[in-house]
Amino acid sequence: MASSVHNNRLSSPRSFGCCRTCNMWCWRAFKWLPVILVVSIISWSYYAYVIQLCIFTLESTVQKTIYLLVYHILLIMFCWSYWRTIFADIKQIPEKYKLPGEELDKLLSAESEDAQRTILDNFAKDLPVLTRTMSGSVRYCNRCVLVKPDRAHHCSICARCVLKIDHHCPWVNNCVCFHNYKFFMLFLGYALIYCLFIMSTCLPYFIKFWKMYQKYKHAHCDRLIENGTYTKPCMDMITGDFGTSASSGRYHVVFAFFVALMFATTLGSLFGYHCYLVAHNRTTLDVLLARLGRDRPSRKIISNFITAMIDEAFRAPMFRGGADKNGFSLGAFNNFKEVFGNSPNLWMLPVFTSNGDGCEFPVRREHQLQTFAPQDAHGYESMGTTRSSYGDGIIYPLPQPDEDTESLLSSERWDRWGERARPFDERESSSYDEL
């Protein structure tokens, strides 16, 4: 018995490792199910539209040619944008934001909260970060062990910090962020146009089939067929367009119309919402708190726990002067160019043209430092600031050490990491913030 217990003890870690590996691969496969569903719907829509509508239903050759040409152009742009959104190269946070081992040891061994805050402030003083936590401290991710760049958040599904993350989208199995936000916008736009085109071109035949069905029901053909009697009008409809030979294609066309209508309704609202975000230079994480007014009666119904989670995760960006939901807004057209780039010829193509590097963003003038150092030979400020790479002349101020004495860990708790404890900011690491 002792030997069997000993063998079980030895085999437990191995079996645990196998189960963990199996669960990991099952979870990875499960995350692709929404993408597979979308691809399946697109494949079926191709069959329903091209084969059943254009080839078997349309009679005019000119009409077939025009429908097929427009359809395939929209399909190519739609699938291209979808592909780029899914397989976009989501780059890692630059190494300069990561705490070196020496600084991390100092942070973990600091005896007071003020000392920890000083360590983070000293490390971040040369980094182009302007946003802060609710307590005014540097935004730090203890999972990735780095100072978060502006508008970056930790994604618990991807298990890493992501630059300018909007949300993690299960339909693309990827984070919608700085590196693929343009592709995501084009994907929504082309998907909406794709659905509207299918819906509009299928509508006349949907009406035609509906009238035929009403005529069929009005003649009581279904009852006559059940009784074994046939009339000439019924025989004409059965042997004609309403017969069994055309029923399969007719149902595909009708179903394609309803599916396109359903998706067009959903995509229209989602695309309109993201157009609003682009025009105001916000992300989903930036805007939701502003939409959930603190004094609305409906919020009183929500439990305090859920309310706190929403308030902490979806708050407006916090600057030195306070929260400002429009802190990154530069005007609708400049906000549009920040996502789609400066080249109009490439705006509608799913190629990366977004301005900047995802770490630094131009801000409104009231959030910029008022004192700037003399310019160097290249026209840039030699110290204390850095200039925008967008070509718009907007200056990025480098944050100086914060003199505020507010406690860094006023709302923090300690979490275990390895054999040592580390600071853990609940406001910066709530499950909603890690979407």
TrEMBL record:
One of its GO terms (molecular function) is protein-cysteine S-palmitoyltransferase activity. It is a multi-pass membrane protein. It is an enzyme of class 2 (transferase). The chain crosses the membrane at residues 32-58, 65-83, 183-207, 253-273. It comes from the Eukaryota. It is found in: Membrane. It catalyses: L-cysteinyl-[protein] + hexadecanoyl-CoA = S-hexadecanoyl-L-cysteinyl-[protein] + CoA. One of its GO terms (cellular component) is membrane. Its EC number is 2.3.1.225. The keyword Lipid metabolism does not apply. InterPro entries: Palmitoyltrfase_DHHC, PFA4/ZDH16/20/ERF2-like. Its main location: membrane. Residues 139-286 form the Palmitoyltransferase DHHC domain. Keywords: Acyltransferase, Membrane, Transferase, Transmembrane, Transmembrane helix. Belongs to the DHHC palmitoyltransferase family. The DHHC domain is required for palmitoyltransferase activity. This is Palmitoyltransferase. It comes from Papilio xuthus (Asian swallowtail butterfly).
